[in-house]
Design goal:
Blueprint lengths: L7 H21 L9 H15 L3 E2 L12 E4 L2 E3 L14 E10 L2 E10 L5 H18 L9 H13 L3 E2 L5 E3 L6 E5 L16 E4 L2 E3 L5 E3 L6 E3 L5 E3 L2 E5 L4 E3 L18
Antiparallel strand pairs: 1-4, 2-4, 3-12, 4-5, 6-10, 7-8, 9-14, 10-13, 11-12, 14-15
Helix pairs in contact: 1-2, 3-4
Amino acid sequence: MAISIKTSEDIEKMRVSGRLAAEVLELIEPYVKPGVTTGELDRICHDHITNKQQAVSACLGYHGFPKSVCISVNDVVCHGIPNDDKTLKDGDIVNIDVTVIKEDFHGDTSKMFIVGKPTIQGERLCRITQESLYLALKMVKPGIRLRTLGKAIQQFVEGNDLSVVREYCGHGIGKGFHEEPQVLHYDADDGGVVLQKGMAFTIEPMVNIGDYRIRTMKDGWTVKTKDRSLSAQYEHTIVVTDNGCEIMTLRKEEEPALSAVLINE
């Protein structure tokens, strides 16, 4: 398994692309409200990425994906295609997944938004999913096995009577959108990968209220829970540092919660 170790120059460029991706999620927040369509949210994100950031959406055209961001609502696990027929309503939970390319390097991140007044189930699912990501982020450091991250996420999620999707995982990232290694969010063989300083990858657990099994829709992209239960996901791009990790896609709202993570070398 060829896992690239990023140079200081690579990391500096990833800081830029990561900050831009985080900025898109910060920008879109006030627009996520009852009555808006996912197509309109996509257009706002696309305009900001291309015209304000002078960057490129990695999603647009990727293996034929037709939009600039993925927007997944309620029982959609991932890869939801924004469209003008999907109007958000009170209580919906929405994942917006953004990947920005700037100077050849990728920044990949996603978060959940709750539309209007949250439901108890929806709020709990989003909170626990985010906590499972933060748990893993705080574990990252050189010398630990990659699989310990997935094991910790799985134990935490299942300990809260939720389930972890198996078919999708985090991934190495840099000049490539999806590089080695695969970052599984449950306990499974990792090929012996031990974290080293300079490794860059995403952690992005997908968590369901019901069963972990999924189904793919006829459009070839949209993935839903098989039992139609709610699903949530949070994602960050990170680089392993001397004694922790740097979160390239950190949003300003998260800084208090992630103060235990080494943000800068």
